[in-house]
Here is the input.
Amino acid sequence: MILIIGVLAGLAAGLARSWLGKRPYHVPQVRLAWLVFVAFIPQYVAFVLPQTRNHFPDAWVPTVLVGSQLLLLVWVLINLKVPGIWFLGLGLFLNLLVISLNGGLMPIRPELVERLIPQAAEGFWVVGERLGVGKDIVLTVEQTRLWFLSDWFLLPDWLHYPMAFSIGDVVISLGAFWLLWAAGADHPKLVEVSHEQENQAK
Here is the structure.
């Protein structure tokens, strides 16, 4: 949800920037975009797809989560010169760091779990264990390494979308915003080509 907000806001800002500057919006040119899709597939199978997530072994979850994050960081390094990508990569790194230091899952505090799913039956979640079929593990602040990088933010109640997120998620969203916003700027190489064409026309 946080990433979607960043993408939509960045796209809107980038299009407005190009329109105000009377120049075309240039879709960001990234290399090996298929790596993002490949990295997403294991998480989709483990956490999203109903037919598989309910049967996905808990023991495999850390490998899937850490592995997919590492693959995304490889993609970031390949595209490091693209505006906003390095910031997006910083968010990925922060998430990977706290996940790796806490057993391969993203820590979330018991207080937040109670607010997210107040109707949960007794025993549905237990401190020290994975939360449902998601990527989180329920840990107290004292049990969590680098707790300030864990899922400890909540979306505002008026959004009616209960979800916890981390500082890393925010940084990723800002990186996506930057990437799409920058696409509405002047591109030196394209400007040079345009000037050459104008000179030739004269």
